[in-house]
């Protein structure tokens, strides 16, 4: 009710003085109230007297957009932008015209220009994000090492040598893949026995040879990776204090 009363007051002022610049305020109030055709008529009558009144021309362009007179609206708003390139309302109006026409790339450019002037506008931020998702490809994910796993795999396959040819002839027939590992395990077991005997001959005490055998990793599953023999050289597992060996060697002398 208050808006209607305000519009009536402005109408009387303009009717009383057609040259009054109150026409611009009346036209804007009519546009906001949804009376778009009256807004257009008031603007054109007032701009005939005050052609340089840019805010009234912006109102005219926005009212024409609502009437779907897009070509006329673009003409009016382009006239504004020639004199005021950073007029936010005019830029948003041009963006909306392109958007309604389906010219999404041009609309996105104009919306981004408007967002540069109104960085905290949530409507502009949302519109720019939505249009960017529609017409721009998604950027590839950034990786700290520079390459993704798939890219590294491709590079590795490019640089890797070709696989070795399978052995031919009867010598390769019937040989299981684990045969070389089994032979290595047997060799390691053979080496542990003389080492244990050597320690026993020197009278070294406190070394637990239980489990001192083939390196872990051969034989039953779940015994860990190939490494040092279990039970040897581990601090606190059967080794006495330093110096015990020295006393033994002194007694041998």
- Extract low-pLDDT stretches: 204-253
Question: How much of the polypeptide forms β-strand, as a percent range?
Answer: under 5%
Please work out how many helical segments DSSP would assign. Answer: 11
Approximate helicity band:
55-70%
How many distinct domains?
Answer: 2
Helix and strand run:
HHHHHHHHHHH
What is the CATH superfamily label of the largest domain?
Tetratricopeptide repeat domain
Tell me, rounded to a whole number, the average pLDDT. 76
Radius of gyration: 44 Å
Distance between the termini: 120 Å
Cα shape = rod-shaped
Largest sheet, in brief, is: none
Tell me the name of the CATH class of the largest domain: Mainly Alpha
Q: What is the third-level CATH name, the topology of the largest domain?
A: Serine Threonine Protein Phosphatase 5, Tetratricopeptide repeat
How many extended strands? 0
Word description of this protein:
This protein is mostly helical. It has 2 domains: 134 residues, Serine Threonine Protein Phosphatase 5, Tetratricopeptide repeat; 74 residues, no CATH class. Helix 1 packs antiparallel against helix 2, helix 3 packs antiparallel against helix 4 and helix 7 packs antiparallel against helix 8.
Task: Please give a quick description of this structure.
By secondary structure, this protein is an all-alpha fold.
Defining key terms:
Serine Threonine Protein Phosphatase 5, Tetratricopeptide repeat, disordered C terminus, mainly alpha, 59% helix
């Amino acid at each position: 009710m208050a808006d209607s009363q305000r519009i009536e007051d402005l109408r009387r002022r303009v009717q009383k003085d057609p040259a009054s610049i109150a026409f611009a305020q009346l036209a804007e109030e009519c546009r906001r109230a949804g009376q778009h055709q009256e807004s257009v008529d008031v603007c054109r009558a007032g701009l005939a007297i005050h052609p340089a009144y840019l805010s009234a021309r912006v109102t005219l362009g926005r009212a024409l957009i609502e009437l779907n007179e897009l070509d006329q609206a673009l003409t009016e708003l382009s006239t504004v932008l020639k004199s005021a390139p950073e007029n936010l309302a005019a830029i948003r109006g041009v963006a909306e015209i392109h958007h309604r026409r389906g010219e999404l790339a041009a609309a996105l450019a104009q919306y981004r220009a408007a967002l540069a002037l109104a960085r905290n506008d949530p409507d502009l931020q949302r519109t720019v994000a939505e249009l960017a998702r529609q017409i721009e490809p998604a950027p590839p994910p950034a990786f700290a090492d520079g390459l993704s796993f798939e890219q590294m795999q491709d590079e590795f396959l490019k640089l890797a040598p070709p696989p070795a040819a399978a052995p031919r002839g009867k010598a390769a027939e019937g040989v299981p893949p684990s045969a070389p590992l089994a032979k290595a395990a047997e060799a390691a077991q053979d080496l542990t026995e003389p080492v244990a005997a050597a320690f026993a001959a020197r009278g070294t005490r406190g070394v637990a040879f239980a489990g001192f055998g083939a390196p872990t990793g051969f034989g039953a599953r779940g015994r860990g990776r190939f490494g040092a023999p279990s039970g040897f050289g581990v601090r606190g597992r059967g080794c006495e204090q330093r110096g015990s060996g020295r006393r033994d060697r002194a007694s041998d002398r």
